[in-house]
Amino acid sequence: MATKKKSQFNRTGLYYFAVESRQSDSSLSRKSIHDVIISLLPRWRSMSLISKKPYEDLAKQEKRLRMLNNENVDTPIIPSSEEATFIETNCQENLFLNEFFSSNLREIYHRDLFFVTFQIFCRTDDEDGGDYYPAEMAIMKYSFAQSVREEYFTIMKPEKFPLGYTGTVIDLSRQTHQIPPFDFIGANGDYERIWFEIERILGQIDSKRKIIIFCHAFEREQTKYLLNWLASKANRSSRKKVIFEIYSFEALVVAVLRRLGIGDYAHQSVREQLHRPVYTLQIKERCVYHQSLAIQYCARVINNGFRLFLDDFVRQRFLDLLPEEKSIVEPMKSLAIGRGSRFVVPFRSPSDSPVFVNNIGRGRSSIGFSVSSR
Fold first, then answer.
1. What are phi and psi of 270, to 5 degrees?
2. Nearest one of 46, 141, 119 to 289, comparing CA atoms
3. Quick one: 194 and 64 in the same domain?
């Protein structure tokens, strides 16, 4: 009896796309998987990265399971070079932040911390430069003593998208922040003004001072790139050197809890907590555009999720060790419109879903707010 020939197919994302298509399309159900793959190849190549992602994820999971089954023992997943770099960066963050928060607790309690979040339209492939195209940004000055001290957020007008990325831009916009990428009347293209607001919140910027910024761990590269990009746009004439050091919010929480003597937590545990609805969908502080959208992809929501996490989870630990600080009354926060800025509520459809609009007239209208405690 002849032995059954094993499948020779490399189970890539295309393979899983073909399997799903054969199951859902009756015209493909009688074809072999090989023939289905051949017929779907042009369609696969035209799909966006976001559309391919679910199938690529299935391929990665299958590869990892195959590796473990071949070993016939339970072992940790061997990290890729990207994962290994991510782990190494987390370790380096821990070393730096241990030193950064080595001062006395009262000084840490009153120290200003800066959160910066960008939403993007796309990132080009490495062979195309690896450039990021911003959709929205938010910056917040925070301290455990006063919570939010200052805040600025704006929807940004991107530069012209490179050839071949229009589909990716539209898909990412619709599936995340839902900000229209083309001719949006609410987009702010005044990069010098945006940089002015960033400088105002960060304080005096010079080449001798490193500026410590915190963001999501998976957005460190993106945040550093876009801050340097904005600085270059605003400082073309002066060529002022700005040095940003970007660290993850997860590492910040872990370092502070370690300094408080609470324990040594994993970054992943902080990340899982941040995904809870109370720190995402239930955040009320949103930009004008996302005010009525029940989505978590708003730069201001993300920063206020950081704020709420620290206020609720970490701040009380400080007060337990610094009881004298409990008697200090926090200043009331008030909403102040940024100086010299003009704002417009974006056009909305009757169903309250965002619609793509054309710029009307030649006036410079933009969405941008500055919030500060007085």
1. -65, -45
2. 119
3. no
Beta carbons of 149 and 373 less than 8 angstroms apart: yes
Kindly state the helix (H) or strand (E) to which residue 233 belongs, with its residue range. Answer: helix 220-234
137 and 34 share one domain: no
CA pair distance 252, 264, nearest whole angstrom: 12
Q: Which amino acid is at 284?
A: K
**In the predicted structure, residue 300 carries a pLDDT above the cut 60:** yes
Whether residue 160 sits in one domain with residue 18: no
Q: Which amino acid is at 18?
A: A
Is 298 in the same domain as 233? yes
Rounded Cα distance between 196 and 216, Å, is 24
Whether 77 is covered by a domain: the verdict is no
User: pLDDT tens digits, residue range 42-69?
Assistant: 888 888 878 888 888 888 777 766 655 5
Asked whether residue 132 falls in the same domain as residue 61, the answer is no
Q: Which residues contact 249 (CB under 8 A, 6 or more apart)?
A: 115, 214, 215, 216, 217, 270, 274, 306
Buried b (16+ CB within 10 A) or exposed e, 275-311: eeeebbeebebbbbbbeebeebbbbbbbbbbbbbbbe
Q: Is 214 helix (H, G, I), strand (E, B) or coil?
A: strand
Nearest to 343 by CA among 181, 153, 158: 153
The domain of 36 spans 13-71
Q: What is the pLDDT of residue 66?
A: 65
Segment 283-303 mean pLDDT: 88
**Could you give the CA distance from residue 367 to residue 361 in angstroms, rounded to a whole number?**
16
Asked if 165 and 281 sit in the same domain, the reply is yes
Residue that is last in its domain, among 23, 42, 71:
71
| The dihedral formed by the CA atoms of 17, 20, 23 and 28, expressed in degrees to the nearest 10 | -10
Q: Tell whether 165 and 58 lie within a shared domain.
A: no
Read off the pLDDT of residues 203-262 as tens digits, 9 standing for 90 and up.
877 667 789 999 999 999 999 999 999 988 886 555 567 789 999 999 999 999 999 998
